Amino acid sequence: MILVIDALNRHRFGSVLDDMYKLRARVFKDRMGWDVKVRNGREFDLFDDLDPAYLVALDDDYQVVGCNRMLQTTGPHMLADVFQDILCGEPPLRSATVWENTRFCIDTDRIKRKNDGRSVSYTACELMAGIAEYAYDSGISDVISVVDPAMDRILKRSDNAPCDYIGKTVQMGKTKALAALSDITEERINRIRAFAGITGNIFADENTVAEALAARGKGPDLSPDLTDYCDQQISDARTEKEREAALALQRTLRSAFSTQPNCDA
């Protein structure tokens, strides 16, 4: 199932976002060796501060097994501000109906450990279908994705081939990068679904997810910056009194996050 997290509901899913940042660190830093910044086991960059939309793949236990990030191209985004060499001097796309898709990854280890019939490829296709359906329902006409050649091959094998490419393929650190453009149409959505045998609604009900997380003691959590701050205060405590004060601050902040208004109410 796919959970959509954006600026309106992110206060409800801090623990999911935290697990997502940890997954990104394991995939992009540890497994792929990308030059990304990791703090306390979490990969988080300046584009995460711009209120993007996240599509997070969850398994039946509501554990994070995949994710991606979608950001409007009218403001800062990776192709314009990090991977501009791909554009060969051409201006980046700027349109309210063209969004950028980045940080696509799958927790292959967890999926293989669970052995519940869900394959890595199915999860990847479900996430790709989620991207296309979310975009289609939001009036987004095209999605630009900065991918490496391996991901480009996955798109093609999944009957989700890009309709075009922008700029050229360039070397970026240990890997190559290219910009793939996908038109968002019902035909594309149907192709992805047919390839993977996906039927029915793939989007999770956020109230159901929030209730399930709360039942497991994984309700709203802090942002990465506040998490880092609290962790540092606890680590720097020199006496038991200072440590208790730092823990009390952490509890107070978590309580404040959990009582933020629910826009669905």
Would you kindly provide a brief summary of this structure?
This protein has 265 residues and is α+β, with helices and mostly antiparallel strands. Helices cover 41% and strands 21% of the residues.
Please tell me about this protein's structure.
The structure is a single chain. Helix 4 (120-137) runs antiparallel to helix 6. Helices cover 41% and strands 21% of the residues. A hairpin with a 5-residue loop joins strand 4 (53-58) and strand 5 (64-72). The protein contains nine helices and nine strands. The radius of gyration is 19 Å and the shape is globular. Mean pLDDT is 87; it is low at 261-265. The chain has a seven-stranded mixed β-sheet, with helices on both faces.
* Envelope shape: globular
| CATH top level label of the largest domain | Alpha Beta
CATH superfamily grouping of the largest domain = Gcn5-related N-acetyltransferase (GNAT)
Strand arrangement, largest sheet? 1-4-5-6-7-9-8
- Any idea what the radius of gyration is? 19 Å
The third-level CATH topology of the largest domain is Aminopeptidase
Average pLDDT, rounded to a whole number, is 87
How many domains make up the coordinates? Answer: 2
Q: What's the N-to-C terminus distance?
A: 23 Å
Order of secondary-structure elements: EHEEEEHEHHEHEEHHHH
Oligomer: single chain
Helix % is 40-55%
CATH architecture of the largest domain: 3-Layer(aba) Sandwich
Number of helices: 9
The helix-and-strand class reads: alpha+beta
Number of strands: 9
| Percentage of residues in strands | 15-25%
Return residue spans where pLDDT drops below 50 for at least 5 consecutive residues. Answer: 261-265
